[in-house]
Amino acid sequence: MRAIAVEKTHVGFSGWTKLGSGTYADVFSCVHDGSGERVAIKRVRRHLTAQGVDVPTLRELKALQEFAQTAHPNVLRLLGFFFSSGFDSARGAASAVHMALEFCPAGDLQGVIDDRATLLPPADVKAYMSMALAGLAHCHAHWVLHLDLKPANLLIGPGGQLKIADFGLARLYAGERAERFQTNVVTLPYRAPELLFGAREFDGAVDTWAMGCIFAELMLQQRFFTIRSGAVTPGWAESKAQLEAIFSVMGTPITENTTFAASKSGGGAALGEAASASAAAAAGAGAGAGAERRQWPSAPTLPAFAQFAPCDGISLARCFPAATPAALALLEELLMFDPARRADAKHALGSAFFGEAPDATAASALAAYRKHDC
Questions:
Q1: Whole-number CA gyration radius for the chain
Q2: What DSSP assignment string belongs to 153-198?
Q3: Using one digit for the tens of pLDDT, what is the confidence trace for 13-65?
Q4: CATH 1.10.510.10 fits 109-251+313-365, yes or no
Q5: pTM for the whole thing?
Q6: CATH superfamily entry for domain 13-102
Q7: Each residue of 112-121: pLDDT tens digit?
Q8: Are 247 and 309 in contact (CB under 8 A)?
Q9: What three-state secondary structure class fits 38?
Q10: Residues catalogued as catalytic
């Protein structure tokens, strides 16, 4: 979609229809009178702009403007923005920030995962993952961390193209870990272990962990790391519960001072507290499932690091019995505990998973797109 000339007010748009509401904003569909194109208008609510433009909106605008000159089919395009003046019951309150965005008529990836009536074939999973990773690689190539990747923020746009959207938590970064950020980013089920352990210095690896979670959910069509039932208080209790959910599947981290629990299959071997990282790696075969993905020597240096009851985890082949070895290898690379060893988006796109049969479904042939008669 080409850029459109956006006026400084809501004049120039007609046929406003409210599509939904989120934590920070309302979303409308309307037609741009000048071009006749249907667009989405994201209006930030008045209470967030009464004292000026709020920080998440500024972040989103700045991130989307970074992509203005380098449009990518898998990143949602900002077509323009404006501020309303005067109260209008249909369009919202005074002084609201409005962003004109590409219209994505077929919903989001969360709807695809939740649609149990339509089982996702491997070719569809491959298509969604290749588009999502391509969009993320573009973000990182332009020094933008998304920091809130989840299925609900991956929209299905024109032609069935998956679009990375909602950059309200995004940050520009210099490609190094020297920068310090807040830890309260990324929706909890997609939050990387280093964030849960309080890391303040991080990079694109937090986004690729979220992509690993999304990959798992596409294959399962349900949440992968699930906190046990019961309300959890925000803060360390919440982080601890999420880490427990991760470790119950992936196993606990292997650090320089890890003591291995006996494997449930009887093959476990104990290592002393002074065991080195290299000894831990050598003992990996006796350390239970997925020893390679659990290697994380630097974990104890994180601000909120805590020891958990040793757990070997579960073989991913048991969790995903229909997945090919190449699919499991990609999932392992995206869900490496050590962010320094976790695959980045560009590397993940080169995975054998994308080269093996079946070929990825063409975007325009994906069931979620065809259902909406787009």
A1: 22
A2: GEEE-GGG-EEE---TT-EE--SSTTS---S--S-GGG--HHHHTT
A3: 899 999 888 777 889 999 988 888 899 999 887 655 555 566 777 778 888 88
A4: yes
A5: 0.84
A6: Phosphorylase Kinase; domain 1 (3.30.200.20)
A7: 999 988 889 9
A8: no
A9: strand
A10: 148
